[in-house]
Amino acid sequence: MARPEIDSVTGVETTGHEWDGIKELNKPLPKWWLWVFYACIIWSIGYWIAMPTWPLVSDFTKGMLGYSQRTVVANSLANARAAQSGFLDKIAASDLAGIKADPALLQFSLAGGAAAFGDNCAPCHGRGAQGAVGYPNLNDDNWLWGGTLDDIHKTLQVGIRSGHEDARDNAMPAFGRDQILEPGQISDVTDFVLSLSGGDANAEAAARGKVIFAEQCAACHGEDGKGSIELGAPNLTDRIWLYGGTRDAITDVIRNSRAGVMPAWKERLPPETIKQLAVFVHSLGGGQ
Length: 288
Fold this sequence. Notes:
By secondary structure, the chain is mainly α. The protein folds into 3 domains: 1-65, no CATH class; 75-166 and 263-283, Orthogonal Bundle (Cytochrome Bc1 Complex, Chain D, domain 2), CATH 1.10.760.10; 183-256, Cytochrome Bc1 Complex, Chain D, domain 2 (Orthogonal Bundle), CATH 1.10.760.10. The protein has helices at residues 31-50, 69-93, 96-101, 103-120, 122-125, 149-158, 183-196, 203-216, 218-221, 247-256, 271-283; strands at 14-19, 22-25. A two-stranded antiparallel ribbon has the order 1-2.
């Protein structure tokens, strides 16, 4: 059995344990470390007594100080709501034009609208409202359902094809999938649509497509292809494409249609928040 001895290199006594010629030193911890350790033990005992710590079957020990971080947060939120209540009451009582005309209300609405946008709208439209394929860019002046304050406010309230009884709702036929047009006719209409915005189109095919467009598409998009805000039909002449402006993308939309959905926020957000959102979106640079 190995016995403790003094290590010749360090001068520290060993524990007597040895593994493959390696001896374990019996060097105590530094005094300062031990005192810190003991102080932590004493502190923890005091913490158990003073603060909520121990879970019980249906509750927890409240501690002598009765401190609760949840209560602190709840009070902080209540104070914030109280500070905002004056502005929110004014927003609730004002129309959109009145909010925009009042510098203080406008500043408050822009800040609140930006926060609400980040929480509720950015997942689809992007943090900068730049949009993506299938999700409109809210910074430009191209609006399917109108870009005035009132138009934006209504769209936020009822949504687009959301199922709400007053939702913005208009469906484009799937001309290929529903066999309304032949593949050759769809190709001709694609050429005509490309020609409307100065795209690379076959002149002869575009001429044939123009006749088909007048019969099948002009009722919504207009004979000049500039669309209709009342029907949510996009302008086909401005090179702004929600689902892409390539030949393949346009052909796919004509063939299979598109029907994007935006939620109705009327039942999800307070009226004051929706007004703030409308003011914020209108301020992005593309509001009419």
